[in-house]
Design brief:
CATH topology of the largest domain: Rossmann fold
Strand order of the largest sheet: 3-2-1-4-5-6-7
Helix content: 25-40%
CATH architecture of the largest domain: 3-Layer(aba) Sandwich
Radius of gyration: 21 Å
Strand content: 15-25%
Number of helices: 13
GO molecular function: glycosyltransferase activity
Organism: Candidatus Doudnabacteria bacterium RIFCSPHIGHO2_01_FULL_50_11
CATH class of the largest domain: Alpha Beta
Distance between the termini: 7 Å
Shape: globular
Structural class: alpha/beta
Largest sheet: 7 strands, parallel
Pfam families: Glyco_transf_4, Glycos_transf_1
Protein name: Glycosyl transferase family 1 domain-containing protein
CATH superfamily of the largest domain: Glycogen Phosphorylase B
Order of helices and strands: EHEEHEEHHEHEEHEHEHEHEHEHHH
Length: 367
């Protein structure tokens, strides 16, 4: 059986890339098709893989400014030659699902329908750091892309949603059914430290993008004058550095080993985003650390209130301030938190994913 993997961009490392690594572990011989592969930003992480970059990656300087090529990305994905593959697996939050498959089966592991085409379109346009004339031009382009995105969704044979939250979006925006398979977390790696008595700070972080709202826990920490560590990088990095008070430390991108240590020794992991799923929350819980999360979206599926964490009800500074003030770490035990997280492990994901692929091949009569 010939399998190909399709991933939007290898230009950063976040939850989607962790999913891709597990998919590549399941299908190690599968080539990975991607629009852009930035070897500098990914620090050679994929050098031993068969990565096949689109023609856009050959344009000088394009990788550094890949978002400028938004109008050409559908064409780039559609240009991938998939006719020889029995199964094509896209993991997608934007364009990977637009790939055109020949007679093979297209399975899409969907992180979310494209945010800036559907639920976050107006916010995306408002936050563009370009002149007003550019925003006026962008709106009809996004409307056209939205129609194209719907058309691409109809070509997918099987949708796998990474949460019930995303399953509902797939149904609402694409009118497609899907099965839910929660994203995999390496619970063998993210483990409880031998000693967790020195939990002295709160932790937040991930991809530092506007829609994640990491400014909220920073402003809450400023107000309470409590220690807060922030990991990750993204377009909001410089703004978060600017607003950080003396008790807040912006760490930037960290190694997996450093991230594990940060989780292990935090009082709690604060997650302010309306999240599709919850990989970073599960990583923290796998390390025995409770989570303070926004009471909406995927967090409701990954955090058990009173057992593995607590919720705050609004994406606001005051709501997070109140959640931190009410937080009592003695209510939680590290092993109970970790035990809950184990059901999101890699082995569980792998067995369920392989079963979905096998069933889909049998139903379509593929080799």
């Amino acid at each position: 059986m010939k399998v190909a993997l399709v991933h939007e961009f290898l230009t950063q490392f976040g939850g989607a890339e962790r999913v891709l690594e597990v998919l590549h572990r399941i299908y190690p011989q599968a080539p990975v098709y991607t629009i852009f592969h930035d070897r500098v930003k990914t620090k050679g992480r994929y050098e031993n893989w068969d990565v096949r970059e689109s023609v856009l990656g050959r344009i000088p300087g394009a990788r550094a400014h890949y978002k400028w090529y938004l109008p050409l990305m559908p064409w780039a994905v559609s240009s991938f030659d998939m006719k020889d593959y029995d199964v094509v697996i896209s993991d997608s939050s934007a364009y990977a699902k637009w790939v055109r498959v020949g007679s093979g089966t297209h399975i899409c592991y969907c992180h979310t329908p494209t945010r800036y085409l559907w639920q976050d379109r107006d916010t995306y346009v408002a936050n563009l750091r370009y002149p007003a004339i550019v925003k006026i031009i962008v709106k009809p382009i996004l409307s056209r892309f939205r129609r194209m995105d719907w058309e691409a969704s109809q070509r997918v044979d099987i949708f796998i949603a990474n949460s019930r939250e995303v399953q509902n979006r797939i149904k609402r925006y694409y009118q497609r059914n899907s099965v839910v398979l929660y994203p995999p977390v390496d619970t063998d790696f993210f483990e409880v430290a031998p000693s967790t008595s020195n939990r002295e700070y709160f932790l937040t972080g991930g991809r530092l993008e506007p829609y994640k709202h990491f400014e909220l826990p920073i402003l809450a920490a400023n107000k309470l004058k409590i220690p807060l560590l922030v990991f990750g990088d993204g377009t909001e990095s410089s703004e978060l550095v600017r607003i950080a008070g003396p008790t807040v430390k912006i760490l930037g991108r960290v190694t997996d080993e450093k991230l594990r240590s940060l989780y292990q020794h935090a009082k709690a992991f604060i997650y302010p985003a309306l999240e599709d799923a919850g990989m970073s929350m599960v990583e923290a819980m796998s390390c025995g650390t409770p989570v303070l999360a926004y009471r909406r979206g995927g967090a409701l599926e990954f955090v058990s209130e009173g057992l593995t964490g607590d919720f705050f009800d609004a994406q606001s500074v005051d709501s997070i301030v109140n959640a931190i003030a009410d937080f009592k770490d003695e209510r939680f035990t590290s092993q109970s938190i970790r035990n809950f997280a184990l059901k999101f492990g890699v082995n569980e994901y792998r067995s369920k994913f392989e079963a979905i692929v096998s069933r889909s091949i049998q139903e379509r009569g593929a080799p």
